[in-house]
Specification:
By secondary structure, the chain is mainly alpha-helical. It is built from 9 helices and no strands. α6 runs parallel beside α8 and α7 packs across α8. The C terminus is likely disordered.
């Protein structure tokens, strides 16, 4: 109830302007001392550099565009094309989660970045699925 009361203070249009929002649960005390092997920082850094190079190449002839986050509607339509499976997934998410048109564009940009980080030229349904998961504050659960 407290979460819903707090979330009601944040307007939908404001949430629409945030590309990624996720819930981060508290770490349990028992898990604090456990050492789980994670991906080394050097590997993450290399993947990010490759993704940024992809974006630089993509926007080479576009003054003022340096990253996927800089894209406006026209560029989103050009560089964030999805196949029919992706369309079905995104339309279903829009309907079930009650997402706005602005959220649609944000999901496409985040999915484009996820694809870039994975070294993919195409945005696949799994990229869209992950991007949709990063819209947790849009969900009706929070807003009702």
């Amino acid at each position: 109830m407290q979460i819903q009361k707090y979330m009601a203070k944040i307007s939908g249009p404001l949430l629409d302007r945030i590309d990624i929002h996720i819930e981060v649960p508290a770490v349990k005390v028992a898990e604090l001392g456990q050492k789980k092997p994670g991906e080394p920082s050097d590997a993450v850094r290399a993947r990010v550099i490759c993704a940024r190079e992809r974006q630089a190449k993509r926007f080479k002839k576009r003054p003022g565009l340096f990253s996927n986050a800089d894209m406006q509607s026209k560029e989103i339509r050009e560089f964030c094309t999805i196949d029919s499976d992706g369309e079905v997934l995104l339309k279903m998410a829009m309907a079930k989660l009650g997402l706005s048109a602005r959220a649609y564009d944000r999901i496409l940009k985040v999915a484009r970045t996820i694809a870039d980080l994975g070294g993919s030229d195409e945005i696949r349904p799994e990229h869209l699925g992950e991007a949709i998961q990063y819209r947790s504050l849009d969900r009706n659960l929070w807003m009702n």
